[in-house]
Amino acid sequence: MIGQSIINIKSGGRGRLSGIVAGLSLLAFILFASKYIEMVPIAALVGVMFMVVIGTFAWSTFKIINKIPLTDVVVLLVVTIVTVLEDLAVAVLAGIIVSALVFAWENALRIRARKHVDEHGIKHYEIYGPLFFASIRPFLDKFEINEDPKEVIIDFKESRIMDQSAIEAINKITEKYLSEGKTIHLRHLSTDCRKLIKKAEKICEVNVLEDPDYFIAIDNYNKEIAARQYE
Fold first, then answer.
1. Domain residue limits, the chain
2. What is the pLDDT at residue 212?
3. Which is it for the CA torsion 147, 152, 158, 162, positive or negative?
4. Which of 20, 48, 148, 212 is the most exposed place for a label (fewest CB within 10 A)?
């Protein structure tokens, strides 16, 4: 159907009527002319399919294949090979899975931490980037437990806790600080992150700092949204 639609568009049929005519024609062939279609040799149908492939394939891809990211090339090859070996539906699913894995890997590399010690001798770790299963190892490597002072604050203002693996990572880093006799706090957790922490109370022992400025900002935002709805 995809090949048929592309051929239809390339032939100039871009309106609604073209799609309706193509669909009704195909239905009429199936209902009233199936015995005549069965008389068409398989070799002829193979030739038709080859022409559909030649007409629908984006040959311009070969011109830019050395300019696009390597991950896109991998997805392109995977989808093409799976389409030939299986079918288009499985190929699309495989392409989505590969793209999702690539996205997770790239986001895992983006997590970073800015460190500083304030006037009270408290060390701050400002986390940037999403914290989830793929970014746990880089996240844990950011902390200098032995060299840190007695009190540490992890600031998630520019980060999000995405899944259970992230909670376990926070619990792991907390246990390491507690074993050294140090205190650790979490700051700027969003509402959904707080819910995850709340659900994991039995396995995660952390001290979440309340930040008045943060909640004032959320309250102002909610009031602004409510005002827009009544306008």
1. 1-57, 61-107, 111-230
2. 43
3. positive
4. 212
CA 69-75-80 angle, 5° bins: 130
Q: What are phi and psi of 175, to 5 degrees?
A: -60, -35
| pLDDT band with cut points at 50, 70 and 90 for residue 26 | confident
Average pLDDT of the chain, as a whole number: 79
Strands 123-128 and 112-117: antiparallel
In sequence order, what DSSP letters do the residues of 111-134 get, joined into one string? -EEEEEE-TTS-EEEEEES-BSGG
Superfamily of structural domain 111-230: STAS domain (3.30.750.24)
| Model pTM score | 0.55
Closest CA to 159 of 137, 186, 178: 186
CA dihedral 43, 47, 52, 55 (to 10 degrees): 170
Beta bridge partners of 112: 128
With vertex at residue 101, the alpha carbon angle to CA 82 and CA 108, rounded to the nearest 5 degrees, is 160
Distance, CA of 36 to CA of 17 (rounded, Å): 26
More confident of the two residues 193 and 121? 121
Q: Which tokens is 19 given?
A: 């799609």
